[in-house]
## 1
Amino acid sequence: MRIALLGGGGFIGSNLALHLSTLSQFEVTVYDRDAAKLQQRFADSSACRFVSCDVREDAPALASAVSDADLVVNLIAHVLPKQFIGTPLEVVELNLHDNLRVLEACVRFQKRILHFSTCEVYGKTGGSSEPFREDLSDCVLGPISNHRWIYSSAKQMMDRIIHAHGLNGDLDYTIVRPFNFVGPLMDWIGPSEHAVPRVFASFMNALLEKKSLPLVNGGSSRRCFTYIGDAVRAIATIIQNPEQTRNQIINIGNPGNETSIAELAALMRRLFEQQTGETAASDDQYVSGDEFYGKGYEDCDRRVPDISKLHTLGWHPEFDLEQTFAATMAYCRKNHAALLALPR
Ligand code: UGA
């Protein structure tokens, strides 16, 4: 099976490419606009093909990437909450408009697409304590003035258009919804004053710089973190089961790994001290969402996936919360110099 990974130089794409290339039935081509990123992330790998091109700007390159593949995996996205707040129109441009061009190419060339949606599509819990279910849960978003939700809305629109193509009978798709994947090559590790990455990288940067960990609105929000190694196995399982996953939306997450962000800060501080023998800065720093991200931020209070669909396919997560963060933190410490040199 020839697989085109579009936007494949990022966190999920690079881990997925390296995993798929260990499985003999797949021939993987990674497309990314950032050639330097491809070179650094895949320096040791001869198992994938790489094409440096911007499929958003280059229609012939997109047509050839899609027409040459049996399966298109679309990972092109802006995914950082700081971007949702800081550059909302760019978020819509890429996550909706540019992605529609990928979708149109898949329809035109009649290619199966594995499209990456997001757990953000579910929005807030709206008072429910039930795990999010792909075909049953409501999507509950805040007001327009809280423009953090622009990303969720753009991704939701993509999901709805893909679903409508399925109803039309002109597209074979699977939509996946990742729930807070963590692991090597996530976001960036680097001086914290230059960036507002997702929570793992933010806390790791603070620990490495001996600073307090910033707890947005006190860290009461809850997430379920999923180790990237478990996640790429889940994605491979979906790819290997095209009949069962045809025209389905599938959550990928680990409901057993639920934690509040304040508890996560305590866990990462403890692991850092265990791994380094050094003392971490002791106090967490309370920071409001508006101060940390900018005006318009509102948080998802709790995100728990229902993963019955993946259970039916025989997939189960293996890394518990402590193993997930211990492995990722050890990787970051060991590769700190190389990570600092990675393109932002
Ligand atoms: C982000 C993106 O919005 C989604 O696109 C993506 O699917 C998701 O990550 C994911 O990784 O799957 P979010 O869960 O809000 O969503 O991710 P983080 O930025 O890692 O934030 C998690 C929680 O930690 C939030 O409550 C945030 O306010 C808090 N946080 C973040 C802190 O308390 N301190 C920090 O330094 C950073």
## 2
Amino acid sequence: MIVCRTKEELSNEVLNAKKQSKTIGFVPTMGALHKGHLTLVQNSVEENDITIVSIFVNPRQFNQTEDFEKYPRNHQDDANLLDEVKCDVVFIPIYNEVFNDESKLNVDLKGLENILEGEHRPGHFQGVVDVVHRLFVLVKPNRAYFGTKDYQQLMIINAMVKYCNVDVQIVECPIVREVDGMAMSSRNKRLSKIERENAVVISKAIFEANNLNENSTISYLKKFVWDKLNVNKYLTPEYVEICEQKTLKLCTADDCVDNKILLVAVWCGKVRLIDNILLNSK
Ligand code: AMP
């Protein structure tokens, strides 16, 4: 596996691949890799001639300094894992390699950036589209892989690609979970043992809500999940919402025309966790 630290090194690899008409699969990450990330990489390896993974903790998408500073970083472990799943190139840039100017990408995200995650993390999605667009320009991928763990992010990336007319196929990959159901996340590494034991209540609550869906109203389901989380002394729910799957329009009563998705953000100590589940249709 080739490790690129600069734009020039990366561009050489991209140019070589393009000259040989090889397809490029791309997986942008912030590192601290786990099986969720590696599944995206494996999908890319299967579907493309070469796979490029980026590891970049993008300060522009963090609205809390502590979250940025404490974000787990371990490039050597990450590189070993990527090598094992046959990644071809890993791009691990420093800040100035990605942001060599202060300009910000201006994308009309149609308000998607202001709800759910966007409401609680102002500026987050502008930071995400900015970095992903810059990485797309460098990597020139045929396909790029994103997890539904960050469901709203996936929708935002789709909106950015459409708005900016980027020629890339966005491939969505389902949430990979731990054996007990907890969604894998780099931030799980920051949980203490007791916090981790209690954090499983998040996935349990949304799975239970899914089982109740057929016979329950939206407000009942939201309150059911909120209460399950809120009653646990290690957890503080930030939002529990049910939205239309395709548009992320909030469902207030039983007025959703599309399939529904339940999304939550929960604080577990000082760590903010998100999860979601597509609700079985009624
Ligand atoms: P991150 O490093 O957290 O920015 O994530 C990089 C990519 O991996 C994003 O597209 C995430 O949605 C995806 N991802 C993170 N955790 C999981 C998971 N548990 N299952 C599937 N995809 C994931």
## 3
Amino acid sequence: MQESLVSRDTHPEDTRITIGNHVIGRDFTWIAGPCSVEAADITFRLAEQVANLEIPFFRAGAYKPRTSPYSFQGLGSEGVEILNQVKQQFGLAVVTEVIDAALLDEISAVADILQIGARNMGNTRLLKAVGQSKTPVLLKRGMSATLEEYLQAAEYILVAGNPNVILCERGIRTFDTHCRFTLDIAAVPNLRRLSHLPVLVDPSHAAGTQTLVAPLAKAAVAAGAQGLMIEIHDDPKNAYSDGLQAIHPDELAELMKVCDTLQGVST
Ligand code: PEP
Ligand code: MN
């Protein structure tokens, strides 16, 4: 592959990304939170539960790339301000999606990690824009992207000057209809072999339903994932988006214990 900056061949050591006291690529990375930033009181309640689990990263989208134009599109600037308050009140680092380069300044002022979603993995102008940012980027795999296409998307960010890219497998489109997407477990060891970038897994968007999240998460850790991004909610029926796949924080606590015992089994 021509892409060299992302390649393990030209950079044999694992990339490590330090954010606060946490080193992604060295420490197992937990990211949890609701799909969307919700009203301030709900978001703070969920953030407190994430902080109580000693998870360093809170995820929630203020700008949402929804499949249907009739679905909730996110709180926008108001949501970014709520995330700012989450940082101050709970000491959490924030992961949030940037769907448009025009929003980069606003979001970078608050985000500790910029998320590029599956629907934007191939948006080269957006990749170039976050490549010029100093903020680490969590780049999700496009739902129909091969690993080569995915790594080329990551290369766009590195070549533009930002070395701090985190890969995240979140499921791909197959003929199966029992999951929202098919989690490509083999992508975990394959990406780790091909690239030095940290490899996380988001089992929530692959699962689509609460009951599948824990089994997929455990499989991902057993396969060598260096972290997990999980959607949570304590009132999933009323979640603004993706409530069907949001697990309760108590369930996440149980999952964290099991995943502790699975780390390192693939090596
Ligand atoms: C999300 O993380 O809420 C999201 C929209 O994910 P994806 O881009 O993987 O669909
Ligand atoms: Mn979601």
